[in-house]
Amino acid sequence: MFAGFQTYKRHVNGVDINFRMGGTGPGLLLLHGHPQTHVIWHKVAPRLAEHFTVVAADLRGYGDSSRPAADAVHSNYSKRTMAMDNVRLMRSLGFEQFSVLAHDRGARVAHRLALDHPDAVQRLALLDIAPTLAMYEQTDEAFARAYWHWFFLIRPAPLPESLIEADPEQYLRSVMGSRSAGLTPFTDAAFAEYVRCLQLPGSARGICEDYRASAGLDLEHDRADIAAGRRLEMPLLALWGADGVVGRCFEPLKEWQKVASDVRGYALPSGHYIAEEAPERLLEAVEDFFPELLSARSPSGIPGGSQSHLPG
């Protein structure tokens, strides 16, 4: 997996963020979802690296990144804090501006990153989510049954943590295998990585705190943005799975148009895990969305022709 990429760790914003990096050109940050790691991008990252300097990061609490302690209001796992991790990571690599491709929980981090740091984000592509506030406010029985983990993981500690830690692989199989495509999209190597990382001490806590923050502090931040009239102004591409829950229970394009000014989007022939279920269709959509950035590459393939983005 990830031919031509190197694995690094960088200490930013008080935590160690694990990431793989490869390619040259404009910066492209890839953020994964639950209950996975940056490995979700293994089918698309090498091709993206033909056009971009690709940085595939593990969110705090996931993968091989740090797992900070819980706090009373879950601020250590708020999307604002997680967004800052990744802004500082990209700046540390020499990217004051970059684009973002993100799935699931990572897409929620990317939404907050683009709101809090609009000058940093050139283009934003979000996979299989509607805005968090809209999804909570419009929750009905069908959504609650399909996304049961949203309501399980926010229960007070230590109940959900204890149940996940009792059998991490079974938790993965229950969550990932219950989607429309079952476990078929996941290679043995990728699934083994998801199991390994969920078995690491503190992983269950990190996952639960991520969701607890989304059901509390993150909603406060979202409501404050709406009250202040803050919107996403950069080009936004929203993609969702035609066989997934998000498109069935919500109107993703309509919901993104409520909070963003320049939105396009459509369903792909996939379930929830688009990057692993429909990698070729995802690549077509993403490469079509980034034409200006691709044409702006310098002859050397590096912005400005000489700047290096290799970690020191």
Automatic annotation (TrEMBL):
InterPro entries (alphabetical)? AB_hydrolase_1, AB_hydrolase_fold, Epox_hydrolase-like
Entry's Gene Ontology molecular function annotations: hydrolase activity
Q: Pfam families annotated for this entry?
A: Abhydrolase_1
The alphabetical list of record keywords is: Hydrolase
Q: Which domain of life is it from?
A: Bacteria
Keyword Nucleotide-binding annotated: no
Q: What are the residue boundaries of the AB hydrolase-1 domain, all occurrences included?
A: 28-160
Does this entry carry the keyword Hydrolase?
A: yes
Q: PANTHER family per the record?
A: EPOXIDE HYDROLASE
- Under which name does UniProt file this protein? Alpha/beta hydrolase
